[in-house]
Amino acid sequence: MKNIIVFKGDITNLNVDIIVNAANETLLGGGGVDGVIHRKAGKELLEECKKLNGCNTGEAKMTNAYRLPCDKIIHTVGPIYRDGQYNEKQLLESCYKNCIKLAKEYQKENKLNIVKIAFPCISTGVYRFPKDLACEIAVNTIKKIIDDNIVVVFVCYEEIDYQLYMKEVHNIEID
Ligand code: AR6
């Protein structure tokens, strides 16, 4: 699909409209990609996040991006993976859907022809979601809801994720 891009690297370097943060329910920062985003955006991000009253798992909230090169950040809270019996799949799917919903609202408000949004591999770090299953859910959910006016960048920080996404999106095996 021409409007899905797989990129290997650090999401905080991307000059897209929106980057997605894999946050926790407090929205007050943490480790992983969340830690990097807060560190690089600057303390104003934490100040804005404090006013949001957290975010439920599967939902999403938008903030400014401050010192980051992108325009906005959508903070979403992925599920903590236990054994697959706690709605983990549906909750992860909701994260992607709710982020796209907010991105479309942003697109409309700013009268943009195209909105470009970059996702990290939500829940697959500290929250231990199996990487292959998370990749399948991410790509299938996005393929179902994407339209010609959205560009989605899947940002893979780890080589293993890059390989999974290249295979799932482009059907390319890398060795
Ligand atoms: N750019 C892109 N992806 C990254 C980067 C980066 N700079 N750094 C890490 N990743 P995680 P989660 C990838 O743990 O599993 C935090 O403490 C990483 O390789 O960041 O949703 C929050 O506050 C992995 O594939 O998020 C929450 O408490 C992916 O980002 C909790 O972790 C997600 O890993 C959320 O856990």
Task: Briefly say what this structure is.
With 175 residues, the chain is of the alpha/beta class. Helices cover 38% and strands 19% of the residues.
Note the topology.
Blueprint: E1 4-8, E2 18-23, H1 32-41, H2 43-50, E3 60-64, E4 72-77, H3 88-109, E5 115-119, H4 131-145, E6 150-156, H5 159-170
Parallel strand pairs: 1-6, 2-4, 2-5, 5-6
Antiparallel strand pairs: 3-4
The structure holds ligand AR6.
Q: What molecules are bound to this protein?
A: ligand AR6
How are the strands ordered across the major sheet? 1-6-5-2-4-3
> Which architecture per CATH?
3-Layer(aba) Sandwich
Portion of residues in beta strands equals 15-25%
Cα-to-Cα separation, first versus last residue: 22 Å
* Oligomeric state of the chains present here: single chain
Number of helices: 5
List the domain count as a whole number.
1
Structural class of the secondary elements?
Answer: alpha/beta
Order of helices and strands: EEHHEEHEHEH
Instruction: From the alpha carbons, calculate the radius of gyration and give it in angstroms.
Output: 15 Å
Overall spatial form: globular
Relative helix content:
25-40%
Largest sheet composition: 6 strands, mixed
What's the CATH class, please?
Alpha Beta
CATH superfamily: Leucine Aminopeptidase, subunit E, domain 1
